């Protein structure tokens, strides 16, 4: 196991844990009391107007606007960022309409994504508004956050919670607008449900709302301990998914690297072929050399990945047999799965085949003339016109 790769995987897990958004109505109630303490009215019957849910949706509450006016020294009371203008950098309001929607610039959202330099600078400038910043970058609709149960995962690693009602019935699904930048891989369909199950169990076991009446830090400590467990829980869920279709790419890489150092080929393989190789590598090693094993590799790896394969068999070349009554050994290319246009000649001299094998393995360059003569001595007098080889 590479220590560097493990540290990179660990940082990715921590990043995933940091993006997790859990719905907790108790936090919204505490924020409402804070809002009332500053002289603002709270509509307790309409959660869509509560500061907590508005911030999750990337919306500014009236208290946010008032406080940001003071922080910015006047103005309209928004978070401010700098973007390129016609005459140089200009300050603009950081809102969901700036980075999303029909008129928004999605490249700004990419620059300010969680963990980036611009994101960290913005949080350092507005340390009390990270929830609002995350809500602007990854907005959770009010229709989702206000109706979800306590402990529900609203956002995690690029995936948003939504409710669908189709032929399969009404159910919760998690979708992402950009799978390439998401911190959860497309085949990890079990991760969020398993993480949700752990969170639900934790809250059932440890959450006692009565304690919050007398201990004002109870909710903060409850969630603090929960979030401390999230990275380890994610790692454990992924460990449990080893040797299943939901396995994480880190475990695939480490497994294949321990079997012939095959991890170097993973960037060239699509997901389906990677999972097939991961699932069958031990069977392939056990049955190496069999025609059935080779056929399985061709059908499940080469052909779906668009890799054309041809093999060579040795034939008798009879063009000069009238002169000395002795045929010449040549290699004839035969298509294994499909032919690639422009592949050149179909008949190759044995010496050319031997020279092509030089970079394949160490010492292949030794005694080529002797090896070529031995092949001729074996092939020329053979009583068959076709002899298969293992050259692919």
Detailed description of the structure:
The protein has 392 residues and is of the alpha+beta class. Among the domains are: 36-147, no CATH class; 249-302, no CATH class; 310-388, no CATH class. The chain is 46% helix and 14% strand. It is built from 18 helices and 10 strands. The strands form 3 sheets. The chain has a 4-stranded antiparallel sheet with strand order 1-4-5-6. A hairpin with a 2-residue loop joins strand 5 (159-166) and strand 6 (169-175). Helix 10 runs antiparallel to helix 12 (218-240) and helix 17 (350-356) crosses helix 18. The longest helix is centred in the middle third of the chain and has 23 residues, at 218-240. The mean pLDDT is 89.
Task: Please write out the topology.
Layout: H1 3-18, E1 21-22, H2 25-37, H3 51-56, H4 62-72, E2 80-85, E3 88-93, H5 96-99, H6 106-111, H7 117-125, H8 130-137, H9 142-145, E4 153-156, E5 159-166, E6 169-175, H10 191-206, H11 211-214, H12 218-240, H13 249-257, H14 271-286, H15 291-302, E7 310-317, H16 321-324, E8 328-335, E9 347-349, H17 350-356, H18 368-379, E10 386-388
Antiparallel strand pairs: 1-4, 2-3, 4-5, 5-6, 7-8, 7-10, 8-9
Helix pairs in contact: 1-12, 10-12, 17-18
Give the structure's gist in a few sentences.
By secondary structure, this protein is of the alpha+beta class.
What's the count of strands? 10
Individual helix count: 18
- Low-confidence segments: none
Helix content: 40-55%
The rounded Rg comes to: 32 Å
For the termini, the CA-CA separation is 32 Å
Strand content: 5-15%
Structural class: alpha+beta
Biggest sheet: strand arrangement: 1-4-5-6
Give a short account of the largest sheet: 4 strands, antiparallel
What's the helix-strand series? HEHHHEEHHHHHEEEHHHHHHEHEEHHE
Identify the overall geometry. elongated
Q: What is the residue-mean pLDDT, rounded to a whole number?
A: 89
């Amino acid at each position: 196991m590479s220590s560097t790769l493990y540290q990179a995987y660990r940082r990715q897990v921590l990043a995933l844990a940091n993006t997790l958004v859990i719905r907790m109505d108790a936090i919204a109630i505490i924020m409402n009391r804070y809002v009332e303490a500053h002289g603002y009215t709270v509509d307790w019957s309409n959660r869509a107007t509560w500061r907590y849910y508005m911030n999750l949706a990337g919306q500014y509450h009236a208290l946010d606007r008032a406080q940001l006016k003071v922080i910015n020294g006047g103005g309209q009371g928004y978070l401010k960022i700098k973007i390129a203008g016609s005459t140089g950098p200009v300050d603009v309001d950081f809102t969901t309409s700036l980075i999303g929607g029909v008129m928004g610039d999605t490249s700004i959202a990419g620059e300010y994504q969680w963990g980036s330099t611009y994101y960290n600078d913005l949080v350092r400038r507005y340390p009390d508004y990270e929830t609002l910043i995350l809500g602007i970058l990854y907005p959770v609709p009010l229709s989702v956050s206000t109706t979800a149960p306590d402990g529900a995962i609203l956002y995690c690693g690029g995936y948003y919670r939504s409710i669908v009602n189709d032929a399969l019935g009404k159910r919760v699904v998690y979708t992402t607008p950009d799978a390439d930048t998401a911190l959860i891989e497309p085949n990890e369909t079990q991760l969020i449900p398993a993480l949700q199950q752990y969170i639900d169990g934790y809250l059932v076991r440890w959450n006692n709302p009565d304690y919050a009446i007398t201990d004002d830090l109870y909710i903060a400590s409850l969630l603090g301990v929960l979030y401390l467990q999230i990275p380890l829980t994610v790692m454990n869920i992924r460990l449990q998914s080893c040797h299943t279709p939901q396995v994480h790419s880190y475990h695939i890489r480490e497994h294949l690297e321990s079997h012939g150092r095959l991890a170097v080929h993973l960037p060239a393989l699509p997901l389906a072929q990677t999972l097939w190789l991961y699932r069958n590598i031990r069977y392939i090693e056990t049955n190496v050399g069999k025609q059935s094993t080779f056929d399985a590799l061709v059908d499940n790896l080469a052909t779906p990945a668009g890799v054309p394969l041809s093999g060579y068999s040795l034939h008798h070349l009879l063009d000069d047999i009238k002169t000395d009554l002795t045929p010449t050994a040549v290699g004839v290319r035969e298509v294994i799965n499909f032919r690639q246009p422009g592949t050149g000649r179909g008949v190759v001299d044995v010496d050319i085949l031997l020279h092509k094998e030089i970079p394949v393995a160490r010492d292949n360059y030794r005694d080529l003339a002797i090896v070529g003569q031995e092949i001729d001595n074996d092939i020329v007098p053979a009583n068959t016109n076709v002899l298969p080889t293992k050259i692919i």
